[in-house]
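Section 3.1: Structural characterization of target chains.
Under the original work plan, the team committed to producing a structural model for every single-chain target entering the pipeline before any wet-lab resources were allocated. The record below documents one such target. The sequence was received from the expression subgroup and is listed exactly as submitted; it comprises 84 residues.
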Amino acid sequence: MALMITDECINCDVCEPECPNGAIYQGEEIYQIDPNKCTECVGHFDEPQCQQVCPVDCIPLDPDRVESKEQLMEKFLKLTNQEG
């Protein structure tokens, strides 16, 4: 699954620089995650880095974007130009 940022976001700016895929960006009111770039850090880290640094725990899995670890790895390979 891709991750999402809920409206509990306090715009603290700590998640954006932690995303290795550049999937997090400032939206109109709160930070947003581009689901086409979010791999839950698969391929980079063992755990999603944005979730690790978020002080208000507002970055859950997006139930509308169900993806397996294999699908996330495929996305990682495409984003890093390593697709086979």
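The first strand starts at residue 24 and ends at 26.
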